Amino acid sequence: xxxxxxxxxxxxxxxxxxxxxxxxxxxxxxxxxxxxxxxxxxxxxxxxxxxxxxxxxxxxxxxxxxxxxxxxxxxxxxxxxxxxxxxxxxxxxxxxxxxxxxxxxxx
Length: 107
Hints:
It is built from 3 helices and 4 strands, in the order E-E-H-H-E-E-H. The chain is of the alpha+beta class and 107 residues long. The protein has one domain (9-93). The strands form 2 sheets. Strands 1-2 form a two-stranded antiparallel sheet. It has a two-stranded antiparallel ribbon with strand order 3-4. A hairpin with a 2-residue loop joins strand 3 (67-70) and strand 4. It is globular and about 40 Å long. The mean pLDDT is 80.
């Protein structure tokens, strides 16, 4: 029986820039295309489009400083990791249900 296992593999996003990802091999070209800044292809499948979008997000993260290249590998910076860990707690306390004003009791 064959199982679909997620196998992380190193992908070369640009010359000398690598990242470890579980994105399937058939979508690596779209991932590199997004990282390089090329537009998406309207004939792509949803998975290829998502890979392209992820590559675009990594390029944006690299340019704004939340990711950096260390030993030819793209990694998240410590400040970005701290922000990612701290933000869910602050969002949880500040979030208010849009249905709160419609709450009523039948008693």
